[in-house]
Write a structure and sequence with these properties.
- The protein has two domains: 2-146 and 285-333, Quinone Oxidoreductase, Chain A, domain 1, CATH 3.90.180.10; 159-281, 3-Layer(aba) Sandwich (Rossmann fold), CATH 3.40.50.720.
- Helix content is 25%, strand content 25%.
- It contains ten helices and 15 strands.
- Strands 3, 4, 5, 6, 7, 14 and 15 form a seven-stranded mixed sheet that branches.
- The longest helix is centred in the middle third of the chain and has 19 residues, at 139-157.
- It is globular, with a radius of gyration of 20 Å.
Length: 336
């Protein structure tokens, strides 16, 4: 099979020929049709993830069809349309797993980091990481939903917001453009927060009832004109911008952070104490959460905006993503 691998930290993506991988008794082999490129793939390319074994094939937004199943796998069939996301398996035995909190498994596997991912024509994954794809959701559109989609969908549906509540989405990028769509389809009064009036037409097209331009106003003050936000979903990985919206929360409001930044968020205790406000992080979800995300998307018409590249142009595709030029998700597609 063809695969794109990283041979060492900081190396380029290399297109190579590899043997089609064999599978163990509890694994599934997928013939990959599409694989999204995520900013987190930089962990493999730059060697930032601990304990990564090289060479490694990245990719954790995988959509395709089952090619083979292991002897112990009874719930998946050859030919089924399936996908795999960030959560690449769990141990079933640690304290978190025994409580059913698989995403926080102490021994969690991460697709494309713990084992090879989807920048390849075939991938082998643990059976518990596999999610069914609805028939009416094309592979190239399903792939980004398995990371960007599930992250914002799962964060919003677990945020405590109810239909009719004011929910603001900070950032109109790879995560945010999906967050706005989900918020609107969940029945929230959806505000989009971005920098520059040029972003307003797209924000409204995606479903935002209001647009807050941080270049011309204080976003927190603007939200307070409408009573404050029950939830602010922070999708843009800019800690300064995230810090600037905290005062836009309503009483009992919650800032839900999904945009990963290494810089600290600045907030004072009094900002949280006054009005019982809260800050929560959220990461991805399990395979069942991925199924819920895709089924909701198929039902409501939520779709990622994507740019397609063939597997052979993985370097070009990655640069499009990492530079911020992509509008909004980059997807590798496999040749016949």
């Amino acid at each position: 099979m063809k695969a794109v691998q990283v041979s060492k930290p900081g190396g380029n993506f290399e297109l190579v020929e590899r043997p089609t991988p064999e599978l163990a008794r509890n694994q599934v082999r997928i013939k990959v049709e599409a694989c999204g490129i995520c900013h987190s793939d930089a962990l493999v390319k730059e060697g930032h993830g601990p304990g990564i074994q090289y060479p490694r094939v990245p990719g954790h937004e995988i959509a395709g069809r089952i090619d083979a199943v292991g002897a112990d796998v009874t719930n998946w069939q050859v030919g089924q349309r399936v996908g795999v996301g960030w959560h690449g398996g769990h141990c079933f035995t640690c304290d978190a797993c025994r409580r059913g909190d698989f995403i926080n498994c102490r021994n969690e596997k991460i697709t494309g980091i713990s084992h090879d991912g989807g920048y390849a024509e075939y991938v082998v994954v643990p059976a518990e990481s596999v999610a069914a794809i609805p028939d009416d959701l094309p592979a190239a559109e399903a792939a980004p939903l398995l990371c960007a989609g599930i992250t914002v969908f799962n964060a919003l549906r677990n945020s405590g917001a109810r239909a009719g509540d004011l929910v603001a989405v900070q950032g109109i990028g790879g995560l945010g453009h999906l967050g706005i769509q989900y918020a609107r389809q969940m029945g929230f009064r959806t505000f989009a927060i971005g920098r520059g009036k040029d972003k307003e037409p797209l924000a409204r097209k995606l479903g935002a009832a209001h647009f807050v331009d941080t270049a011309s106003c204080d976003p927190a003050q603007e939200l307070q004109k409408f009573g404050g936000a029950r939830v602010i979903l922070a999708t843009a990985p800019d800690s300064k911008s995230i810090s600037a919206v905290v005062n836009g929360l309503s009483n009992n409001g919650k800032l839900v952070v999904v945009g990963a930044s290494m810089e600290p968020i600045t907030v004072t205790p009094i900002q949280l104490i006054s009005g019982r406000k809260a800050i929560q992080g959220w990461a991805s979800g399990t395979a069942k959460d991925s199924e819920d995300t895709m089924q909701f998307s198929a039902l409501t018409g939520v779709r990622p905006m994507i740019e397609r590249y063939p597997l052979e142009k993985a370097n070009e595709a990655y640069q499009q993503m990492i530079s911020g030029r992509a509008r909004f998700r980059v997807v590798l597609t496999m040749s016949a």
